[in-house]
Structures are given as C-alpha cells and as structure tokens.
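Fold sample X.
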Amino acid sequence: MVQEKKFMKKVYSFSAFARDFLIFHKNIPAIIASLIHRKISKPFESKIMLTVTAVNGCKYCAWFHSKEAVNAGLNQDEVRRMLSRQLDIQIGDEESNALNFAVHYAETDQKPDRELVANLYDVYGVKAADDIFLKLRMIYFGNLCGNTFEGFLSRLKGSKPEKSFWLSELIIFLIISPLYGLLALLMKNEKGPAPAI
C-alpha cells in the first residue's frame, strides 16, 4: 500500500485565519506608526522576521524577508544562518532575548509563557516590547498565510496538509492569492536559488 505524502508545515484553520485577519487589520494604524516611529532598528526587525519564518518555514516570507534583511544591512551568510535557525550570528545581548522569545512565540503558536512575556517587557520596556509583539503577530500571520497558500497548491498535487480541511484552505487561498500569487510569480522569475527553508 502506498502511503500518502503529507504537507508538514503549519497552516491556518478558517477560524484561526479569521481571528488573525481581524487582529491584523485592527492593528494597521499601529503597523504604520511603527514604520514611521521605530522602537527597534530595521536590522533587528529583520532578524525577528527571519527567526519566526525559520520556525514556520514559509518559503514566500523567507524570500521576501531575506531581501529586506540584506537591504537593512545583514549579509547573505547571516540571512542563511538565521533561516537555518543558527542564532549564534552577530546578535548582541540587546537582541538575543527577543530572538529567543520569537522562537518560543512561533513554536507555541502565539501562546507564549506569561513569565517570558513579562521578561520581554522588563528587558525592552513597554514601547519596544509592544513593537516586538506587533512584528511577531505580523510575521506569524504572513507565515501561516504563505504556508496555507502553498499547502493548498500541494493538496492539488496529492500532498495534503495535516489537520486541515480542503474548504478552509480554498477560502483562505482565494483571499490571499493576490499577494502570495504575486510573490510566487516574482520568486519564479528571479534568477538564482531561493533561500533554503
């Protein structure tokens, strides 16, 4: 008997997508404000984005945020090592706490330990910690949208996501296709290999 292949990345259920979609849109003013009045540096933000993406494995976010990270001053080797979850690159003490928290945040599906949350606020203060949380929510949402987009395409090729329902995937796929379809097209048309994830 041939065993069916599974798509192993985390994908959204419809209820989780709807919740995070509403939270994301509710936070658009805060997202815009965080881009204008930065509480954390652009390289630090890029490291947070890459760290969460490394846990969730979204190839579209890996491609996009790798480019953003290089533009922010990280080199290709730093990006590659971040995406392979090697947090030993040039990370200062001021960043290590947040990046380890980012791993925990992604691994616990946005349900971090309260003590670690309190520690994050103690280390960074309210404004910077709020900004870090905003970035974490943004990238987690982006990662799972990308994985759901990829998962639905994978289902069509015979490798369906675990613990997922085709109708939920289809609805989410239709909602996010304009953005992730464009990213897929840009990735396909770019010369050179995509970042490994």
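Fold sample Y, listed below.
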Amino acid sequence: MPKYIAAVESWGDAANYLDNFLNKSFEANPIEIIADTKRTVWVNSVQDMVDKVLIAAGGSKIWWLVILGHGFPGWQSVGCGTGLDPTDTKHLYVESTTGKLAGNAEAELKRLKPVLAANSVVSLGGCETGKGTKGELLLKTVSAALGGVAVEAATNVQRLLAGYEGEVRRCKGNHCLIQPASVFQ
C-alpha cells in the first residue's frame, strides 16, 4: 500500500512544532506510526533521512514524501536548522560552481528511487525554498535525482501548519509551474 512519510529535522522549530502537534516524544522513537500508511521520521542529515524513509516505507511505494525543516530560496534544511552546514550533509541546495546538489545529496536521494511511486510527490516544507531561479533549479535538480517525480516547495514564508501557504512551485523533471497552494492540496 502506498505511504505518506514526513521527514522532520530533529532540530529546532520543525521538531518542536510537530512534536507538540503529535503530543509524542520524537526522542523515544525515530519512526512514529501515525496510521497504517502514515509515518513520521526524525532526521539529522540527508543520509539519515534516506535511511529512515527506506525503513519506514517497509517495502511499499511512497506516494507523498514531505521534508520539513527551515529553508530559504533554493535551500532546504535536512538537519541543520537555520545554520549552514560546512559538511554539506544536512541540507539540499545546488552548488553554483558545479550545478549539482551539494555533498552526498544526489547519491543519497537516488537510493529513494525504487520506493517512489511513478506519480509520487516530494514536498520541501522550508520557507521560500521554491522561490526564484534558485528555487526552481533546486526543484529540478532534486526531481532529476529522484527519477523525475514531482518536487514542490513554497515560494513564501511558511508557518508549519498543515499544507502550504501562498504560492507553490512544482517541477517534474524540467517542467515547472507556480500556482496557489490550494491547487495542490
């Protein structure tokens, strides 16, 4: 059965919000089972996220993967909060010198391809992650690493409530569009 998985950085606002929302302690269990087809994993890096998402999928296809953490145009935190990570293992962004995902992100994300359904959606939940040319480049690059599935992110500040606020950019391969969040929800 297809699964919905939320990967939440185990740092700061995202973890605190979702922990309070679920009224559970993420430290006690790295994979929360919310319902039979819904999982929440608490992550500290891109590799940690991929490892835990693969476990949480349990052999089933994932139809929606949500990555919650801080963000800014063209950048999504996966464990480093609002700070920059000199190891390039705790965020997703495209290096300006190479045009590729920083650190080990591309290799790690490729490991998810076998568990993503053909019509999967990957949502990056950081503030302004999908904004501007940097946001579009990140979404296209992540989509390519994941085998061409749809990748989306908001273009404005988010408040970590259910769903996006404002406009959302969605890219599937090199094809992108921006629409109000209500179209995608």
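Sample Y note: Residues 73 and 129 are 4 Å apart (CA to CA).
Also: The first strand starts at residue 3 and ends at 9.
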